[in-house]
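Protein modeling request. Please complete all fields; requests missing the sequence field cannot be processed.
Requester role: graduate student
Desired output: 3D structure, token encoding
Chains: 1
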Amino acid sequence: IQTEGDCGAMKILTNRNHTEQIQSSVDEFFQYHSSYWKNIYRKESLDALIYRERKSCVLTMARSLKLSEMSPVLEVGCGAGLTTVALAECGYFVDAVDTVEDMLDLTRQASRDASVERRVRTSLNSVQELSFPPQYFELVVAMGVLPWLDTPQKALAEMARVLKPGGHLIVTTDNNWCLNQTLDPLC
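Delivered output (187 residues):
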């Protein structure tokens, strides 16, 4: 095993390229399926029911925190912006980030449709390298984001970095034993 200078740099470069390739594939998937995430919450399917329930639970948790109005909130992987809009309707100022521009377009449109665009700011941003200052947000929300990442530990560290001391983090994640996977014969 070589551990000298350039070999270590090459390993880091290779890992970075691998991570970038994975992220590129994930971005392509969500770019192609962006309309699915806009419409899934309205459908009458098990997946839709699970997503609606997840969103409801997250919003219930966020409201229970009793944050002051205009508290800065970050939603990473905002998708079509439905949770972003609901958080803004609670009175919070929401930074919504995603790595797919079509998702941010849907979030901007949803915030305009709900007349909360003054409380929503969108940006193309990776949860693994957030462009926000340390200790900025009262609340960070990440719904279903971690399974799509090559290095979820890095994302969790970034979310912790941007949280104010005493701030709150709400993370949800799917797993192989989730109800829709267990009951769907195709899975």
